[in-house]
Amino acid sequence: MDAMFIIVPVFMGCIIGGVAIFGITRWVMYMKSPIEIAHVKIVSKRLAVSGSKNGSSTSYYVTVEFDDGTRKEFSTSGKNYSMVADNDSGQITYKWKIMKDFVRVVKTHQDEPSKFCEHCGTIFATDAVRCPACGATRKKS
Predict the structure, then answer these.
(1) pLDDT tens-digit map of 104-113
(2) Residue 113: what pLDDT?
(3) Is residue 46 within 8 Å of 61, Cβ to Cβ?
(4) Which CATH number fits the domain 35-49+58-105, given the four candidates 3.20.20.70, 1.20.1250.20, 2.40.50.660, 3.50.50.60?
(5) Runs of H (alpha helix) within 48-114
(6) Which residues contact 33 (CB under 8 A, 6 or more apart)?
(7) 21: part of which helix (H) or strand (E)?
């Protein structure tokens, strides 16, 4: 019985120490990471809700694809989450695993005239002949 008074506190101390070391390590990694800016395409977004009878919390995540084809998931704020949509292209500002900001790049009709319907402005698929929105026929370029 005397051994239990030693083993249990030591075991609990190891668990608390491990959690503290893990938290400090994550904080140091975040603080050492530079703020980076890159051009990306939003691939998907998801949210995770967790909670109990005392309340709940929501975590927001956005997966992006960089110009070199690599993908990475970032946690973000609810505001940033609500401002992005799948297939958006733009500039991301991030630090470590956290998306700080996203600025969408909107292409105009002058950027790629052959991909837009001249009648309603809807984006055409590369091989489409008719506009999916208004039915207008694409002019050959």
Answers:
(1) 987 654 554 4
(2) 46
(3) yes
(4) 2.40.50.660
(5) 78-83
(6) 95, 96
(7) helix 4-32
Q: What angle do CA 105, 100, 59 make, to 5 degrees?
A: 110
- pLDDT, tens digit, for every residue of 77-121? 999 999 999 999 989 999 999 999 999 987 654 554 456 667 666
Q: Where are the beta strands (DSSP E) in 1-141?
A: 35-52, 55-66, 71-76, 89-95, 98-104
Per domain, the residue ranges of the chain are 35-49+58-105, 107-141
Q: Is the pLDDT of residue 47 over 80?
A: yes
- Residue 85: CB atoms within 10 A of its CB come to 9
How far apart (Å, rounded) are the C-alpha atoms in residues 31 and 20? 16
The answer to whether the CB of 84 falls within 8 A of the CB of 92 is: no
Residue corresponding to tokens 């700080």: 100
Question: One-letter amino acid identity for 25?
Answer: T
- CA–CA distance from 72 to each of 6, 45, 116, 121, 125 (Å)? 45, 11, 30, 32, 26
